[in-house]
Each structure stands twice: as structure tokens, then as C-alpha cells.
Amino acid sequence: MDFAEVTVVRGRKRLLDGVDWSVSEGERWVVLGANGAGKTTLMQIAATRLHPTSGTVSILGETLGRVDVFDLRPLIGLSSAALAAQIPAGEKVLDVVVTAAYGATGRWREQYERLDERRAFGLLHDWGMSTLLNRPFGSLSEGERKRTQIARALMTDPELLILDEPGAGLDLAGREDLVRRLADLAADEAAPAIVLVTHHLEEIPPGFTHVLMLREGQAVASGPIGETLNEANLAATFGADLKLTASNGRYTAVARA
Ligand SMILES: Nc1ncnc2c1ncn2[C@@H]1O[C@H](COP(=O)(O)OP(=O)(O)OP(=O)(O)O)[C@@H](O)[C@H]1O
């Protein structure tokens, strides 16, 4: 995936401002930035849900604007709050995942095969949801919802997986469970390229390889996580003096006293 000079303008505001960014096969990216930095806007473009005002975007070898996005979308798994909000509360967990095979939220009209059902079951099992297959999505805890959404995003066996704030609203144990599962996914060579958006360094799973840091629509820094995630770039990204700690592939940042 290649972004060149990507800009999104709404009214007088530049939601994204000349962003250059490349994600290659096998890479696991974290996108960091304060509220309003443009992370979700960037993910909407990567997921072919939004077109930039200017700049060029190529995703999986196809240039946005010159390709039918409906051909691309099955190759891109997306989990986001906006997508979750479209899932009917009464929809059963298994169906939430199975229907991803059709790029549709809601299973009306769609006939699906046993094969799809088996794949959805396997994914839900992998994500710790096998005892909740028949539960309505609306009755799940936040952690269960997030895991269901990730299983759904993986259903089409995508080449790119975009997780927009998968840790939002999780309690401490739930977050740690998710981080562990995402670390396992990151370590899986067969897994797609992954892009994970977060505000919190504690949510970065071990094994993630790169970081993009955004501020006010601009890329402050991007590159391999070991050298790019440093205190100078954190200060520039969040506008705060933060002390960074890295240990065993996990990160924390707190205000310097
Ligand atoms: N249609 C729009 N018109 C004007 N401004 C918009 C529009 N959509 C988003 N914005 C603004 O663009 C900025 C970037 O939004 P975006 O959701 O991409 O940020 P974010 O980094 O994902 O933020 P958060 O961490 O709070 O989710 C925000 O200030 C938002 O209010």
C-alpha cells in the first residue's frame, strides 16, 4: 500500500495534509496520534471507503480512482467503530462473521455455504468466541465485540488487515488478552499485513514492526518501530513531554514529572 502526498480537505480544514506512507507485505504497523490527528480518515482511505482530495493511493497494486473498489474490498479486512455501529444488535455472532464473505452487514438476501460457516466458526474459535456463536451481537461485552469484529475482518482471508482502535473500551484484562492475541497474529507468517490504530502505547502488541505518527493531519515520523518510536517523536506527536519505557516488546509512556 502506497500513499503519496495524500491530502483530505473538508471546508477549510486539512484532515490529512501531504501524507506519504508505504506498507509492505508482512509488515505490522501501528498508527499513533492524538484525538483528531487524522488516523480514522487515513484508515478510511486505506479501506477504500474514502477518496483523498489530492494525492495518489495504491492498494495491493491497484490505484484508487482507477479500480472498482468493490473488487478491492474483499482483500481488505476492516474493524472500526463505524462498521460495528452498522451491525444489527439482534444479529447472531456467527452470522456477523459469515456475512463478511459477501461484503454485506446483515445477512438478508444472502445465501451462504457450509464452507463459509465452517471458516467463520474456526475464526471465532481462534478469537475465543466459540461458546457465543448464537448470541446476539448487541448482547456481547465490549471485548467480545472487538474479537468478533476481528474474526469478521479476517473472514475474507484479506491481504491487508486494518484495526481502528481495537483496544478502545476494554478493561485491563481484556486489553491484555487482545494484545496477546494480536501478538500471536503478528507472529503468524501467513497473516496479512496489519495496520493497528491506537492512542495508547500499552496497546502495541509485541512483534509489531513499524510505526506511523500523525499530528494534525501530517506524518511526524514513520519507520521501523525500534528507531522511530522515541521520546522526541512522541513529544512532536502528542505535544507533551513524555517518558517512554520499552520492555519485552511492550511500551508505556507517562508524563515526565
Ligand atoms: N466531514 C468532516 N468535516 C470537517 N471536519 C471533519 C470531518 N470529518 C472529520 N473531521 C475532523 O477531522 C479531524 C480528523 O478526524 P479523524 O477522525 O480522522 O481523527 P482521529 O485521529 O481518528 O481522531 P480520534 O483519535 O479522536 O478518533 C478531526 O478534527 C475531525 O473533527
TrEMBL record:
PANTHER family: SKFA PEPTIDE EXPORT ATP-BINDING PROTEIN SKFE. Residues 1-241 form the ABC transporter domain. SUPFAM superfamilies: P-loop containing nucleoside triphosphate hydrolases. SMART domains: AAA. The lineage of its organism: Bacteria, Bacillati, Actinomycetota, Actinomycetes, Micrococcales. It comes from the Bacteria. This is ABC transporter ATP-binding protein. GO terms for molecular function: ATP binding. The keyword Phosphoprotein does not apply. It comes from Zhihengliuella alba. Keywords: ATP-binding, Nucleotide-binding, Transport. The keyword ATP-binding applies.
